[in-house]
Amino acid sequence: MKSIRTSLFAILAMIVAVTAGGDSPSPQGNAASHTVSKAEFERWKTELSNWGRWGKDDQIGALNLITPAKRRQGFALVKEGFAVSLAADVDTEKAVDNPAPYEHTMLAIGADRIGVAFHGIAHTHLDSLAHVNYDGKFYNGYVPQLDVVMKEGGHAKNSIHNLKSGIFTRGILIDIPRLKGLPYLEPGTPIYAEDLEAWEKKAGIKVSPGDALFIRTGVWGRRKAVGPWLRGRIGRAAGLDTSVIPWLKRRDVAVLGSDHPQGVAPSDPPGSVHDFALVILGIHLLDNCDLEALADAAAARNRWEFLLTAAPLPVRGGTGSPLNPVAVF
């Protein structure tokens, strides 16, 4: 009888263990393997959503977290007045990672014209919440009609024009290559929440609501060393793993930037962090920042927080804007 009871308890324990290791409804992902199932990713679209958080008519998403108090916190970080750009130089040369170079034409001795299709992996730019959609729905449920958008010359909601007054907040740099003792990460290297928290511990900082968070992978340093390579959704790049998404929500990041469009590539689904941040979390994205000078400046001071300022072009209906973000220490 005792052996029967022991066997029953063993079977019961096995059932509990299997159940606990299954596809949990908690929006944490699989902490051990970092695997995020398709079903879990789809649940996150509801469980982690910021839709309606700041009202049904909200068009700026997580930028609502940049309060006057947060701006004052950012301003208080300016000790020296030393400024450093986070933008890559305007690139007019076609390459495998720059299929649509800047167009710069001189019109006269003192006049010129500049043109660019700025989305993609080459040019430093800010994505608006009218840039990416899931099944036709943009952030906060905005559903435009293609013919209307094309006829009217842009979006009626969520456009970059909402950011005409610019972004002014506390910026934080998380330097993953420096954390790992490397000059840069190799393409395809995933960055996990544990890496972000290991850097916080090393640097003595913590990401808090309303911050502009920048993740350095070393793209521009590697490009300088080995030349351009195919990145983006059809290429390979280091970046945030899909499993980091709940961490971004918990920390209430207001702006997310990197030297690549945020997520590791390839990823499943493609563009997972980038697209989820825009559509579900309402986080504006700073793509393709050149963070090399910022990393050097921060390391020289052992200061990984700074005042971040960024001002896009106020294009009505626009899906984003090229810009020059600036960090001030």
Distance linking N and C termini: 73 Å
The strand order across the widest sheet is 1-13-11-5-7-9-10-4-12
Total helical elements: 10
Mean pLDDT: 91
> How much beta, percentage-wise?
15-25%
Which shape, going by the Cα principal axes? globular
Biggest sheet overview: 9 strands, mixed
The total of beta strands comes to 13
Report the order of strands and helices: HHHEEEEHEHEHEHEHEHEHEEE
Radius of gyration computed on alpha carbons: 22 Å
User: Which runs of at least 5 residues are low in confidence (pLDDT < 50)?
Assistant: 1-31
| Category by helix and strand content | alpha/beta
Proportion of helical residues = 25-40%
Task: Give a quick precis of the structure.
The protein has 329 residues and is α/β, with parallel strands linked by helices.
